Amino acid sequence: MDTAEISKARMVSKSHDVESSWDDEFKKLVQNFPKERSWAGSNLYFYQGFWCPSLVLKAFISFQKHFQAFNSDVIVATFPKCGTTWLKALTFSTLYRNQFPWDENPLLTFGPHQLVRFFEYDLYLNNPFPDLQNVCAYQPRLFSTHAPYATLPTSIKDSGCKIVYICRNPMDMFISLWLFAAKLRDKNRESLSLDEAFDKFYHGISAHGPFFDHVLGYWKASQENPNKILFLNFEDLKEDMDSHLKNLAMFLGVPFTDDEETQGVVEKISKICSFENLKELEVNKKGVHTTGIPHTHFFRKGEVGDWSNYLTPFMIECLEKLIQEKLNGSGLTFKLSSKTSNNIASP
Ligand code: PAP
Fold first, then answer.
1. CA quadruple 201, 204, 207, 209: dihedral sign
2. 275 C-alpha vs ligand 1 centroid, how far in Å?
3. Count of alpha carbons within 13 Å of 238, Cβ hemisphere only?
4. pLDDT tens digits, residue range 194-240?
């Protein structure tokens, strides 16, 4: 077995073993939660309106119960496969740019997921009370989560901490997740067919889904409180990185100075965080995340519109209708391809 296969085997066995490691009290707590098979073959539990993977259910509940936010904290929140890795790299590099010499940017030696750690997939995974004072090498503290807005700990919602959220059109997100799940799936199980995955996605069943509830939860919260939540789109970033990076810096309270702009700092950040650069770094070719997932799995194509190579006309029609229905009246728009004619706006 090569390193990737060993990591995968470890990750799959972690997901499968986790339920047998639950104590009686926890088993009792979750016994009545609705349950479904995840796309990669483990279990999803329906908890507080969302499908939580068995691997992180306990960690998520610990995080929800015990995490105390500081006013200065920054949290990268995402639905899986919407640009988490990218936004982690961008937020890290923007927020801390004056805390290290540029040619020693930690992104060159650590994966974005190692630098901006998940609450549920990392910090709380094996420890209900992680020492959060010492996990961040830089200040302010920077964390990440796939948790839906409605389920965030009260201290995150009520404190002055800031949330940066990125969403992505559901067609690209769906294909990205389907291909990712196939890589994680246990060798002894057949991969989920595109039809099967589509059926699950259409009915809101995927890790941290329903997708639309997740996106709209953060979208509405960002509309109500734009100083607290910055809502970004994968497709907008692809189209015009520099102006979104300036907005991000402004939102984080570290706007680029005129000098920095003249020195090309914005372009440097966008370049170091680009798909092409990150994918080729040794650390991202070889490293493994705490869950056992190889870093390479987080870098596939990074494009807008790749769904057109996979979805059937029937699937496209269903998703277009679903998008219209779900976004109705919300003011949220998805760009489905880099060609502007192919966009779905909310009525
Ligand atoms: P996660 O939520 O599981 O952490 P996430 O990083 O959101 O994963 O998703 C990975 C997707 O982002 C992949 O998309 P694809 O399958 O359509 O290719 C990956 O290629 C893409 N991605 C990763 N890094 C970047 C980047 N720097 N720029 C653009 N896209 C990226």
1. positive
2. 8
3. 22
4. 999 999 999 999 999 999 999 999 999 999 999 999 999 999 999 99
Mean pLDDT value across residues 132-157 = 94
Lining ligand 1 with CB less than 6 A are 78, 80-86, 172, 176, 273-275, 278, 298-302, 306
pLDDT digits (tens, 9 = 90+) for 75-113: 999 999 999 999 999 999 999 999 999 899 999 999 999
Dihedral angle, C-alpha 3, 5, 6, 9, nearest 10 °: 160
Contacts of 151 (CB under 8 A, 6+ apart): 47, 48, 49, 50, 60, 64
Nearest CA to ligand 1 atom 5: 81
3-state secondary structure of 45: strand
311 token code pair: 């979805």
Global pTM value:
0.94
What is the signed CA dihedral for 147, 152, 153, 157, rounded to 10 degrees?
A: 140
Sign of CA dihedral 139, 143, 149, 154: negative
Whether residue 341 has pLDDT greater than 60: no
Helix (H) or strand (E) holding 114: helix 112-115
Report the DSSP beta bridge partners of residue 166. Answer: 78, 232
User: For position 344, what pLDDT does the model report?
Assistant: 57
Quick one: pLDDT at residue 27?
95
CA angle in degrees (0–180, nearest 5) for 298-304-308: 105
Tell me whether the omega of the peptide bond preceding residue 130 falls within 30 degrees of 0, making it cis. Answer: no
Spatial separation of the C-alpha atoms in residues 130 and 122, rounded to whole Å: 10
C-alpha 266: how far from its chain's center?
23
Cβ atoms 245, 90 nearer than 8 A:
yes
Domains and CATH numbers, the chain: 32-345 (3.40.50.300)
Ligand 1 atom nearest to 89, measured from its CA: 27
Sign of CA dihedral 300, 302, 307, 308: negative
- pLDDT range class, residue 7, cuts 50, 70, 90: very low
